[in-house]
Design brief:
The two termini are 29 Å apart. The protein has one domain. It is globular, with a radius of gyration of 17 Å. Strand 1 and strand 2 form a beta hairpin. Strands 1, 2, 3, 5, 6, 8, 10, 12, 13, 16 and 17 form an eleven-stranded mixed β-sheet that branches. The chain is 14% helix and 35% strand. The protein is α/β, with parallel strands linked by helices.
Length: 225
């Protein structure tokens, strides 16, 4: 898979777009996971084939867009992969990991998630902040990569007086590759949706949007240029 030249446009930190092969249609097919017609494959076989194709696409995307093998991190211990869940206690994950959500995964947070290494998000995931938290919904001490994913952060509100990042605080770089990321109704003192002390880069037909995200001293997103 070859990378095409990219041209990114940033409008007040609210909408960012990148372009590279593979096509948007190819990426959408990976995530929609459509079932095969009954006259082509039995249902069980079609499901197996669907998931194999999805996993293959994710691995290929990882090889093309990431360095250092971050797509190969083990699954984040104790975090769900599918369904709807409520996490009501703060969790600290000590090592770098990959959180791979399957279609329909929704996680409601009553306390922050803290990652002391690097974090990679893949697949489909929605993070919901049920109430104002003592910090961002997700705090990452390393770098964070969103790869071949649809990820959304809704209602994440950092209640600390000088809190950084409503949904995400990232100590190092934030990388979005072949993904669509949405921040909605998030708030913090600085960086209502996103605050990263590293760089912010988008690759491979990625979009990042901020809807109704607010802050008192900065914009919806803050990063080190």
């Amino acid at each position: 898979m070859s990378l095409a030249g990219s041209f990114a446009t940033l409008l007040l930190g609210l909408w960012i777009t990148g372009a590279v092969r593979p096509s948007r249609e190819d990426f959408q097919q990976l995530l929609e996971a459509e079932a095969a017609p009954p006259d082509v494959l039995p249902i069980a076989e079609a499901e197996d084939s669907k998931h194999r194709n999805l996993e293959l696409g994710l691995r290929e995307a990882g090889a093309a867009f990431l360095e250092g093998g971050s797509a190969d991190y083990p699954h984040c211990d104790g975090l769900p992969r599918n369904g709807s869940h409520v996490i009501d206690t703060a969790r600290i994950l000590n090592s770098s990991c990959t959180w791979h959500g399957h279609p329909g995964l929704q996680v409601t947070l009553k306390e922050p998630l803290i990652f002391q290494g690097n974090l990679t998000l893949m697949g489909e995931i929605q993070i919901v902040g049920e109430q104002e938290l003592d910090g961002p919904c997700i705090n990452v001490s390393g770098k964070m990569t969103v790869l071949a994913a649809h990820a959304s952060f809704v209602g994440c509100r950092n209640g600390i007086e000088e809190g950084k990042g409503g949904a995400l605080f990232i100590l190092k770089d934030f990388i979005v590759g072949n993904s669509h990321v949405q921040f909605e109704s998030c708030a913090a003192s600085s960086g209502g949706g996103l605050y990263t002390e590293g760089s912010f880069s988008l690759e491979a037909q990625s979009t990042v949007s901020f809807d109704n995200c607010t802050s008192t001293s900065a914009s919806a997103a803050f990063w080190d240029l």
